[in-house]
Recover the amino acids of this structure.
């Protein structure tokens, strides 16, 4: 069997998945949870092999590649949460009665076959396969090659869970064994894969977007801004800026550029920079910031366009809200922006004029997240405008169809 | 100015469009309507030049290229209808209050900059530009080169209408003057064009899908099926099949393949074929159909996969609903399918198991249409599953954004 045969088998299996009841789909998730527990040693053994074979990877990537008993337990907690969420499939979205007697019902249905291309993070394999099953989809997976042994074990367990509940094992398949040609086959699978979701580095996503012939939902990088307005509360500013920057610097909703109104420099910026400094943050400042805060290194034009994903922060002083909006418009990746202000009119202008997936007032940018939004599960954060924008939960793995019931109507 | 400069100018103009009030946007549509009337002679003159320069085109395409006083009047009626529809922008989609005090509002917003690539149909220029304006978007147009003179006049009038109402003329621009390089620039305009909508032949759409680096909504071809079940009412069958096939054979929602349950052959199929024959339809039949109906020509394997867009129809007898579903699954382009039946259980199975944008019971496939669905205006029919599926109205030219209002929240 080659990648294309696997993809075709998954497409065929998607028909059964679409008709599976909510109860059956939840039973599959329960089986996965049990199998993760009873096969923990086998999973950890495979993961150890992956870790040993990839010791040369940077520490951050190795950490993402690592499974532990606790992390497997965390996956089981997430599966329990997913089971508790109501099934979105079948939801009535619109119900229209036309004057000619036709009834049009728009109902929520699965996509059919989803493709996921992601990096070497084995927990994503379970997460995204479970979300696909919950939404009645089949899925083709292509994980990072560094996680190949672990993913092979995980996919086999998921298939066993499908089989235990009378569903086709081909509903969750991996093309990892085919290397890069597997990913290429997915990108070319027009008419088979209904939507392709790349998750990972900006480069991975760009490659998929530029080469895919099937529809893609981009999850994307975050050049995320906070604007400290003239009226910003000092405690809000310190809490929100340090949380946005340092709570988990390596993720897409972490702060990368701090903009500060000139009238907030003495009162707010200096204490904020002091707090950041104590947490190990390196400040890349414009000229004024360098003058006020000698520890700052000079910010270059490239800094404003950089997603550091590290304890670095670029800082710029602006004359006005307009200038802040202009800077955001020029450099933001349209992921998340937050204003810290007590000025209601400025808050509303910021919400209206910033063209990002999530725009905030007086809150940490770290809240752009499916779990924090209360979605229970997360596919990723969409930074495109088509289909989904912002944190993607179960609904974003569905589409709709129109059911038309008539009594012999023809068009005049 | 080259195509890229024009696209950039349109992107900049999209900021003003997004903030325009519903009243202002309606005033622009009113101005367009007035300008269409006061400049009718100029429009018809340009159209005459296009028609003279393209006399070698097939009759169908020449018809689509032609504007007349009546057709301009029809555009003005559509503009009046569009003005009457309420503005979708600003609509509250979800309103979530989180336990930590955060308020999350998902609101409907414009895409920003839309791209439309379509064939030589000048009425589409007005239609789609008007829908973009109504939804607060800017738009870049690339119409078929045969309509270039007409489109140039129409775009100038639309820009005059924008200008009369204080909006930037760059909100509606055409790259027609740049020929094919204009379309290429649109497909490459990542970060500038938020969504690209191709409208036209299957080949045009495939080219855009395969070459675009910006997100695309596919409007697609229709290999549309009607299934006459064993219990089909004779009058429904005759009305619906003749209407689906002959009311406008050249469009995507016209019937292409008729499937018939073997138990309905004598009672229903023969009278239906007789009615079709009187309307000039050529029957491409399987062996049984050829035997029963000597005027039928033999259907080849290629017929089942063909969108005729003409007075041709392929006809096949099946043993069961399962066999009909199998045929549809194999050959349908997932646009529209209809079952004619009195059997409620079969109707529900057909609705559930056919994976098409629109699935019907006892109705003509010609109803898959934005106006017939009551949307007032139509961008096209989406045959993909991402973002929009089926007839696309104003909502489908919008996206959403999340507005988060906090009081100093940081993530634990």
């Amino acid at each position: 069997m080659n990648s294309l045969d696997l993809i075709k088998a998954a497409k065929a299996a998607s028909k059964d998945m679409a008709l599976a009841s909510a109860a059956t789909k939840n039973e599959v998730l329960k089986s996965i949870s049990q199998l993760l527990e009873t096969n923990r040693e086998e999973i950890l053994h495979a993961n150890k092999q992956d870790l040993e074979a990839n010791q040369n990877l940077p520490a951050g990537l190795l950490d993402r590649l690592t499974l532990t008993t606790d992390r497997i337990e965390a996956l089981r907690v997430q599966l329990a949460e997913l089971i508790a969420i109501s099934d979105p499939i079948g939801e009535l979205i619109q119900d229209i009665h036309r004057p000619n007697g036709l009834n049009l019902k728009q109902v929520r249905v699965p996509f059919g076959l989803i493709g996921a291309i992601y990096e070497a993070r084995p927990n994503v394999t379970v997460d995204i396969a479970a979300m696909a099953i919950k939404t009645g989809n089949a899925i083709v997976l292509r994980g990072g090659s560094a996680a190949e042994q672990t993913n092979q074990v995980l996919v086999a367990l998921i298939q066993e869970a499908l089989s235990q509940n009378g569903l086709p094992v081909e509903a969750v398949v991996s093309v990892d064994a085919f290397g890069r040609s597997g990913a290429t086959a997915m990108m070319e699978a027009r008419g088979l894969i209904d939507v392709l979701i790349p998750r990972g580095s900006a480069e991975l996503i760009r490659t998929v977007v530029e080469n895919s012939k099937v529809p893609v939902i981009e999850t994307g990088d975050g050049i995320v801004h906070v604007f400290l307005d003239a009226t910003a509360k000092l405690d809000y500013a310190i809490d929100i800026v340090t949380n946005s920057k340092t709570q988990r610097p390596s993720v897409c909703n972490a702060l990368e550029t701090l903009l500060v109104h000139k009238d907030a420099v003495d009162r707010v910026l200096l204490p904020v920079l002091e707090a950041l400094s104590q947490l190990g943050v390196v400040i890349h400042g414009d000229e004024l910031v360098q003058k006020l805060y000698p520890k700052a290194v000079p910010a270059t034009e490239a800094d404003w366009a950089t997603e550091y994903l590290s304890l670095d922060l670029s800082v710029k002083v602006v004359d006005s809200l307009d200038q802040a909006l202009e800077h955001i418009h020029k450099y933001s990746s349209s992921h998340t922006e937050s204003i810290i202000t007590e000025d209601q009119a400025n808050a509303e202008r910021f919400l209206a004029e910033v063209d990002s997936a999530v725009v905030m007032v007086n809150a940490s940018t770290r809240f752009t997240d499916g779990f924090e939004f209360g979605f229970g599960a997360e596919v990723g954060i969409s930074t495109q405008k088509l289909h989904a924008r912002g944190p993607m939960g179960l609904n974003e793995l569905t589409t709709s169809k129109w059911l038309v019931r008539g009594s012999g109507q023809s068009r005049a």
